Amino acid sequence: MKSIPKVPAENFFTLNMRAFGRDPVHFFETNRARFGDVYESNLSPFLKMYVFCKPELIKHFLIDNAKNYKKSFAYGFLRRALGNGLVTSEGEFWLRQRRIAQPAFHRERLASLTQTMMLSISETLVKWEGYKARNQAFDVAHEMVQLTSEIAAKSLFSSDISSFKDRVINCINNLNLCVSNMIKSPLGRFTAWIPTKNNQFFEKNQAEFNQIIYSIIENRRKTNATYHDLLQMLLEAKDEETGESMTDEQLRDEVITLFSAGSETSSNALAWAMYLLCSNPEKKEKLKQEIAQVIGNRAMQFADIPSLTYANQIIQETLRLYPPAWAVGREAKENDEVDGYFIPKKTQVLIPTSVVHRHPDLWENPLAFQPERFENELIKARHKFAHFPFGGGPRFCIGNNFAMMEMTLALAMIFQQFDFELLENQTIKAEALVTLKPQSEIKVRIK
Predict the structure, then answer these.
(1) Residue 11 lies in a domain
(2) Of 22-36, 89-103, 200-214, the least confident
(3) Is residue 280 assigned to a domain?
(4) Which domain holds residue 390?
């Protein structure tokens, strides 16, 4: 077997957990540059974690031998927030839930959501007209969270959450931070149920979020109206063996998972896209030219999406540089071997998506924003797991088409109407929480 280099410990007691906690992406990137595409992170004396940054090996874990791997220990913390929904569940239960939810994300269903999405985007643009009239700068990251939360609620659950949108967004942000703190703590695995300040803050926000979601479920159960959304499909689903419907808790887990994931990841990607376009005026102008050619001054339509090829490339390049799901974690169920590396049972396998997406052996000038990388011929020549923002294999993100449609519509409608400039003297950095978020505001002004 090939030997796997181990990262030297920074501290005798906490090993490398503190370095990881300060900046996870930087930790995995610097050690890839130092030790190569395969190394042991040496994060904790209580678990063995191997890091893999090579596309051919990533395919082994996510496709070729995916059955030997379950979600890593970090998903246990996420399960506390999301419950046993599609992101965190395993085995037959996950497969059953996936089959129930899948029809809601078929292309025909997504086409019917176009008007819902465009209405929410139009309402956002009306608000931005006010910013323009007042020459007022605003935080585009916050605006994108507002937008995608509204789209997620209306598209998935036919619910208008305008009256409590800020509460929902605060809960999601706070739970994201709390779960991230648990994962980054050297003692996070052992203090999960101790009433620490972080855990108490987590419980408070989870209780508030639960109250909102359960009220949506309760109101739906009481109504006699007919809905054609995911919540209705989940309500009507029956267990093939027992004939039983989902309990409120099961519904809560799926609703909170899809709502959180559907709003959080898309909002981050759109915020980063706005930042990158404002930082690269020539790319922004190329996008505006495509919009003028494809749409002109008329209203956007679902049929326009396939023709917006450069908008798609911009989104793909944004997801390369700033993948919302910045890492994938697995745990070996049994001993395994890949490319001469022995992987013992219970070993944690960490695939740092953000590091692979910026790997200098895979990407020329990897830090540059170059949407043209995603022209068809270049995609065909590239390994599938050089770029995998939506994961891969059986656990490929169920909402990938929903997200791509939402982001394409948003970018096209935004830049059809407005142009933007970044405010000066801003330091924009990424922060690796559960998702890869802007660490601070991204202030822009409409030109």
Answers:
(1) no
(2) 89-103
(3) yes
(4) 17-446
Q: What letter does residue 245 receive in the DSSP assignment?
A: B
Distance CA 353, CA 430 (A): 14
- 199-243 pLDDT per residue, tens: 999 999 999 999 999 999 999 999 888 888 888 888 888 877 788
| 346: region left, alpha or beta (phi > 0 left; psi from -120 to 50 alpha) | left
Q: Give the CATH number for residue 28.
A: 1.10.630.10
pLDDT in the model for residue 295: 98
439 part of a folded domain: yes
Mean pLDDT of the chain: 94
Q: Is the pLDDT of residue 244 over 90?
A: no
Q: What is the 3-state secondary structure (H, E, C) of the chain?
A: CCCCCECCCCECCCECHHHHHHCHHHHHHHHHHHHCCEEECCCECCECEEEECCHHHHHHHHHHCHHHEEECCHHHHHHHHHCCCCCCCCHHHHHHHHHHHHHHHCHHHHHHCHHHHHHHHHHHHHHHHHHHHCCCCEEHHHHHHHHHHHHHHHHHHCCCCCCCHHHHHHHHHHHHHHHHHHHHCCCCCCCCCCCCHHHHHHHHHHHHHHHHHHHHHHHHHHCCCCCCCHHHHHHHCECCCCCCECCHHHHHHHHHHHHHHHHHHHHHHHHHHHHHHHHCHHHHHHHHHHHHHHCCCCCCCHHHHHHCHHHHHHHHHHHHHCCCCCCEEEEECCCEEECCEEECCCCEEEECHHHHCCCCCCCCCCCCCCHHHHCHHHHHCCCHHHCCCCCCHHHCCCCHHHHHHHHHHHHHHHHHHCCEEECCCCCCCEEECCCEEECCCCEEEEC
* pLDDT category of residue 266 using cuts at 50, 70 and 90: very high
Number of domains the chain contains: 1
Tell me: the pLDDT tens digits for 391-436?
999 999 999 999 999 999 999 999 999 999 999 999 999 999 999 9
C-alpha distances (whole Å) from 10 to each of 6, 17, 18, 27, 359 are 12, 8, 8, 12, 25
pTM: 0.95
4 belongs to a structural domain: no
